[in-house]
Write a structure and sequence with these properties.
Layout lengths: L16 E5 L3 H15 L3 E5 L2 H10 L4 E5 L7 H10 L6 E5 L7 H6 L4 E4 L5 H20 L1
Parallel strand pairs: 1-2, 1-3, 3-4, 4-5
Helix pairs in contact: 1-5
Length: about 140
C-alpha cells in the first residue's frame, strides 16, 4: 500500500496559493491535480486571459503565478513584462507545451526562473518548478 500524503515543504507557505493564467481548462485540471498531490493544501485559481489575470493580481495576493506561453491576445512573456512594469515581483513559472522555444536571456530578464512542460506536469516536476521559482524569488528579494 502506498502513502498518498503529500510531502511537507517548510520553505513554502501553507496553504500555498497559486494563480494559473491559461485558456485551457484541460491544462488547468492537469496542473490542479499535480499541485494537489505535490502540496496537498494548495489552492489554484485559473484566469482565462491576460486582462482577467491583471485584475485578479491587482486584487489578491498569490504565492506564485503559472503563465501559459500562448494566451491569445498576447504571449505569457508579454503579460509578464506588463506585470513586472506594474510592480508585480512574485515568482513565476512558465507553463508551456513548448519548453525549449524560449530565450533563457528573456526569461531571466523578466525574472522567470522556471519552465514547466505541460506534457510532464507530474507532482514531482510541479514541485521542482515551484521550488526553483520560489527560491530564486526569495534570493532576489534578499539582495
Amino acid at each position: 500500500m502506498t502513502d498518498d500524503t503529500p510531502p511537507t515543504d517548510s520553505v513554502l507557505p501553507s496553504p500555498f496559493r497559486a494563480l494559473l493564467v491559461d485558456d485551457s481548462e484541460f491544462d488547468g485540471t492537469l496542473l490542479q491535480r499535480a499541485l494537489a498531490k505535490a502540496l496537498g493544501d494548495a489552492e489554484l485559481r485559473q484566469c482565462w486571459d491576460p486582462e482577467e489575470a491583471q485584475r485578479v493580481l491587482a486584487e489578491q495576493a498569490f504565492d506564485l503565478v503559472f503563465l501559459d506561453h500562448h494566451l491569445g491576445s498576447m504571449s505569457g512573456l508579454e503579460l509578464l513584462a506588463q506585470l513586472r512594469s506594474g510592480g508585480f515581483e512574485g515568482p513565476v513559472v512558465l507553463y508551456t507545451g513548448q519548453p525549449q522555444g524560449h530565450s533563457d536571456a528573456r526569461l531571466e530578464e523578466l525574472g522567470c526562473r522556471a519552465v514547466l512542460d505541460k506534457g510532464d506536469a507530474s507532482p514531482a516536476t510541479v514541485l521542482a518548478a515551484i521550488r526553483s521559482a520560489w527560491t530564486a524569488s526569495v534570493q532576489t528579494d534578499s539582495q
